Every structure is written in structure tokens, then in C-alpha cells.
Amino acid sequence: MTLFLPFLLFASVAAQYSITDYAPTINAPCPQASNNVLVRSFTPQTQALNTQEGSYLGARESNVIPAAWSDWVGNSSSIGYDLALFNGSLPRIGIAVGGQGYRAAQFGAGVLSALDARNGTAKSLGTGGLLQVASYLAGSSGGSWLTASLMLNDWPSPSTLVYGDGRALSGWMLDLDLVAPSGVNLGDTDNQAYWGSILASVEAKANASIDTSITDLWGRALSYHFLNQTTRNNFYTNTTGHGVGQLWSQIPLSPSYADQSMPFPIIAADSLPSGSESTPVVSLDSVVYEASAPTFPSFARLAHSSSSHLSSLGLGIHHCLLWFRWLIQARI
Ligand SMILES: *[C@@H]1O[C@H](CO)[C@@H](O)[C@H](O)[C@H]1NC(C)=O
Ligand SMILES: *[C@@H]1O[C@H](CO)[C@@H](O)[C@H](O)[C@H]1NC(C)=O
Ligand SMILES: *[C@@H]1O[C@H](CO)[C@@H](O)[C@H](O)[C@H]1NC(C)=O
Ligand SMILES: *[C@@H]1O[C@H](CO)[C@@H](O)[C@H](O)[C@H]1NC(C)=O
Ligand SMILES: *[C@@H]1O[C@H](CO)[C@@H](O)[C@H](O)[C@H]1NC(C)=O
Ligand SMILES: *[C@@H]1O[C@H](CO)[C@@H](O)[C@H](O)[C@H]1NC(C)=O
Fold first, then answer.
1. Ligand 1: does its nearest atom lie under 6 Å from the Cβ of 76?
2. pLDDT truncated to tens, each residue of the chain (332 aa)?
């Protein structure tokens, strides 16, 4: 019995999602608003952190971060600071990883690796440790691919994430091209099967009457690399959902969130003026969205209640969009 267990677990994970699960559930009941306030009202005097963000930070800053400071800075014997002189007043640190596609994701991973106490070289040089004392890790665009990949893989070290560990983590597999993974021959069977899988996902979403765009195709392609359901062995198959079931809002379920060992994750997304199709320098008055893992579901509700498109589907205010794939499908 015990011998069969790993196989059964693997089989149930593999069977959990299919590529067409990319379609959101559009008429699900909303969560109990009394337990989980979706829309906050505030005045300039009453602004406060979202309760879940506040309680995560409180727990991380009392249970995890003091020991991490002590481990990093110590008593000045190694890197020239003395924690005792901080007099118990530790600065709150946030790290933000900027954008620019794969380049930003890889550059960000290299920098985070150099700040990570789990990297022995970085630790001995004195930079490794800053990552562990950070309260926040934010990302935008390519930086959000890195942030999401770290969080949705349960906070491995950046080098394990990027190169894989030969076991559960298969790495980013950056040698497999995003557009034509099996080479420049567009008629190649593997390329064709790959595009067929991506198209089927996006078509399933379109069939649920949700608008789709080129960012859906792009986001699906990225999921093969940054999420953990794709390996070299299943890359050209439909035996897994290739990340369709992994949601930004599920990060709180991961063990590294439960014990507050990861910094609080935030993704920032800029918006373009209504009607604009180009992406030049975005003007400073464009709305900037901030999506943290526990607060993101409220955005789905907001998006729903304000969208005339969804109203035209006959959905009332008590219906929510579940599993709305916004994570890396939007160009963030
Ligand atoms: C500082 O740390 C070093 C190395 O851990 C230790 O040998 C030394 O006794 C410590 N000094 C004080 C004053 O705590
Ligand atoms: C250190 O903190 C204590 C308690 O908060 C305070 O009484 C003391 O003045 C502080 N010392 C310095 C040097 O800031
Ligand atoms: C430590 O970080 C540096 C800088 O990113 C990187 O070159 C090196 O490979 C890392 N070492 C390990 C063991 O991850
Ligand atoms: C992928 O990561 C998620 C979140 O940490 C985890 O629940 C899941 O088991 C992982 N899946 C695989 C195939 O490793
Ligand atoms: C989407 O709907 C079309 C038309 O009904 C159907 O042919 C197609 O198979 C559907 N695609 C998916 C992925 O469900
Ligand atoms: C996955 O299924 C879709 C829809 O049936 C098909 O077009 C595509 O070729 C399949 N991909 C693979 C890798 O088998």
C-alpha cells in the first residue's frame, strides 16, 4: 500500500486539471462578505492596511524577521553592523523587481539570489540575508513573473527555481522558446501540438463568453515556464493543465505563506488610458493596480460588478468570477 502511495498522489495531481480549465467559472456565489470584506470604504483619516495584509506582516515581523536580522547582521563580527545598536527598532524592508520580460525576470532572480541567505556564497560575502528580512516582495511585468514563480512554487531559492532541482522543480526551461519551443520549423508536430493546447485553453475561456486577447496566449505560454505543472517530459502533451489551475489568490494556501517565511507578495500593474492601444511611456496619472495574494479576489468581484459586458450575461451582484486568470495573462 505504502509503495503505491507516491504513484497515486502523482496520478491525482496530474489528473487534477486539463487545459480547458482555463475558462473561469462565471456564475459562482460570492464568498461571505462578512468574513471577507471585499470592498473597503475609507476616508483619508481611516486608511489602513487590508486586515489580511496587516496580520501577515504582523506575524512575519514578530515570528520570522527578528531572527533573520540576527542571522544576517549579527553582532558586527561579520558585516560591520551591530544589531544591538538598532535598539529593537528594525526597518521595514520591501524589495521591488521591475519589468522588461525575460530579461527582468532573470536579472531579478540573479539579484535575489545574491541577497538570499540560502546562497552560501552570498551569505559569506554579507549580502545574503537581505531577502530574509524583507517584509514585502513586489514585482511588475517581467519582475512579476519571477515573483509569481517564487510564490507559486512555495518559495524555493532563486537558483533552484530557475535551474530546477531534478525532482519536483523542473526549472524555467528557458532553452525552450516561448513561441516555437521545438525549433524554427513551424510545421513541426511538437510546435503544432503546443499551439493547439494553448489555443484550446484560450478558446475555452472565450466559449465562457469572457473576452480574450493576445495576452491570454502570452500568459499561457509563460505558464509552461514559470509555473510547476510543466516538465520536459510533458511539455508537448495535454496530460496536465500546464498551470491553468494555479492562481495568485491561492498563494495563501502554500506552506511558506502559512509559516510567513516568504515576504508578502504584491504585483503592480500600470494601466493605459482608455482607448489607447499603444504602450509608450505611460502617463503618471494612469491608475496603478496593486494585487496582493489575499486581496486579489476582491478585484474579480469589482471587475464583475463594474463590467457591462458581464452584466450583459445576466449575472447579478451576488455572482462572482472564480478562477479569473489575471496573474500572468494580463501584461503585467
Ligand atoms: C559576536 O559573535 C561572535 C561570532 O558569532 C562571537 O564569537 C562573539 O563572542 C560575539 N560577541 C558578542 C559581544 O556577543
Ligand atoms: C532604546 O529603546 C528603549 C525602549 O524603547 C528606549 O527607552 C531607549 O531610549 C532607546 N535608546 C536609544 C539609544 O535610542
Ligand atoms: C549565489 O548568487 C550568485 C549571484 O546571483 C550566483 O551567481 C550563484 O550561482 C548563487 N549560488 C548558488 C549556490 O545558488
Ligand atoms: C506546484 O506548486 C503548488 C503550490 O506550491 C503545489 O500545491 C503543487 O503540488 C505543485 N505541483 C507540482 C506538480 O509540483
Ligand atoms: C468552443 O466552442 C466551439 C463552438 O461551439 C467548439 O467547436 C469548440 O470545441 C469549443 N472549444 C473548447 C475548447 O471548448
Ligand atoms: C491538446 O488538445 C488540443 C485540443 O484537442 C489539440 O488541438 C492539441 O493538439 C493537443 N495538444 C497536444 C500536445 O496533444
1. no
2. 333 333 333 333 444 789 999 988 777 666 665 665 656 677 888 788 888 899 999 999 999 999 999 999 987 767 778 888 888 899 999 999 999 999 999 999 999 999 999 999 999 999 999 999 999 999 998 999 999 999 999 999 999 999 999 999 999 999 999 999 999 998 999 999 999 999 999 999 999 888 888 889 999 999 999 999 999 999 999 999 999 878 888 899 999 999 999 999 999 887 777 777 676 777 777 778 888 888 776 555 444 444 445 455 555 545 555 544 443 333 32
Between the CA of 197 and the centroid of ligand 6 the distance, in Å, is: 5
Tell how strand 93-97 and strand 25-29 pair up. Answer: unpaired
Q: How many domains does the chain have?
A: 1
Q: Among 173, 182, 112, which residue's Cα sits nearest to residue 147? A: 112
The rounded distance, in Å, linking the Cα atoms of 275 and 273 is: 6
- Beta carbon of 180 within 6 Å of any ligand 6 atom: no
CB of 201 sitting under 6 A from ligand 5: no
The verdict on the CB of residue 53 being under 6 Å from ligand 5 is: no
Residue nearest to atom 12 of ligand 2 (CA): 87
C-alpha cell at 246: 494555479
Q: Which ligand is nearest to the CA of 161?
A: 3
Cα angle value 106/156/256 (rounded, 5°): 130
The three three-digit cell numbers of residue 239, written as one number: 496530460
At 266, give phi and psi (nearest 5°): -140, 140
Alpha-carbon gap, residue 153 to 169, rounded angstroms: 8
Q: Report the candidate in 103, 95, 98, 43 with the shortest Cα–Cα distance to residue 270.
A: 98
> Which residue segment(s) compose the domain that 45 sits in?
2-331
Model-level pTM? 0.85
Q: Among the atoms of ligand 2, which is closest to the Cα of residue 87?
A: 1
φ and ψ at residue 249, rounded to 5 degrees: -75, -5
